[in-house]
Design brief:
The complex is a heterodimer of chains A (about 120) and B (about 120). Chain A is mainly β. Chain A is built from no helices and 11 strands. Chain B has no helices and 11 strands. The chains are: A mainly beta (about 120), B mainly beta (about 120).
Chain lengths: ~120, ~120
């Protein structure tokens, strides 16, 4: 079956540009996570949605980062006024259920963002 | 908050040998410990996980052990094959009522299996 998909797979932006990264979770999955993975590092949590509700955005590094999931399925991570330190792979993961039951997180292939 | 340390950062073994990767965590409340395999250009893929009420879990050539007292857990791969070559990440999560279980990852171990 279809897994988590992300688009675009690669994005090059000039410093100061705005970017939007899309995540299509597995159909019917309640939970959706965004992670940031710097080169040679493990993924770091950014934000979490349960259906359309953003329950945790404690990992967003600045107010330039914004995420939404308006209909409880597709999610978009937006970065305004991109900086070089935003260069990373952005991973999306989905999980079948929400709190309190924990289930495996299924990851997408990621979007590699390069800010020049 | 939780902190996960992972060792070694690189590991090279001969095909057929065993590989062991170790992780420690800081938050004694963590109760879910998955291991992910990430191949180049792909997202992490779960290979095995363990919960705090279990000390060991095995799935074919892969096993994970957990020592809650010492707050460490390990991944064991036996009879390694070249296709096991990848970056492996351990992670920890605190799963309780009302928590979403966001994962705290280690920095990864690059495993190379030489034919």
């Amino acid at each position: 079956g279809a897994g988590v998909s992300q688009s675009p797979r690669y994005k090059v932006a000039k410093r100061g540009q705005d970017v939007a990264l899309r995540c299509d979770p597995i159909s019917g999955h309640v939970s959706l996570f965004w992670y940031q993975q710097a080169l040679g590092q493990g993924p770091e949590f950014l934000t979490y949605f349960q259906n359309e509700a953003q329950l945790d955005k404690s990992g967003l590094p600045s107010d330039r980062f914004f995420a939404e999931r308006p209909e409880g399925s597709v999610s978009t991570l937006k970065i305004q006024r991109t900086q070089q330190e935003d260069s990373a792979v952005y991973l999306c993961a989905s999980s079948p259920t929400g709190a309190p039951t924990y289930n495996e997180q299924f990851f997408g292939p990621g979007t590699r963002l390069t800010v020049l | 908050g939780e902190n996960v340390e992972q060792h070694p950062s690189t590991l090279s073994v001969q095909e057929g040998d065993s590989a062991v990767i170790k992780c420690t965590y800081s938050d004694s409340a963590s109760n879910y410990f998955p291991w992910y395999k990430q191949e180049l250009g792909k997202g992490p893929q779960l290979i095995i996980d363990i919960r705090s009420n279990v000390g060991e879990k095995k799935d074919q050539r892969i096993a994970v052990t957990l020592n809650k007292t010492a707050k460490h857990f390990s991944l064991h791969i036996t009879e390694t094959q070249p296709e096991d070559s990848a970056v492996y990440f351990c992670a920890a999560s605190f799963d309780y009522g009302g928590s979403q279980g966001n994962l705290i990852f280690g920095k990864g171990t690059k495993l190379s299996v030489k034919p």
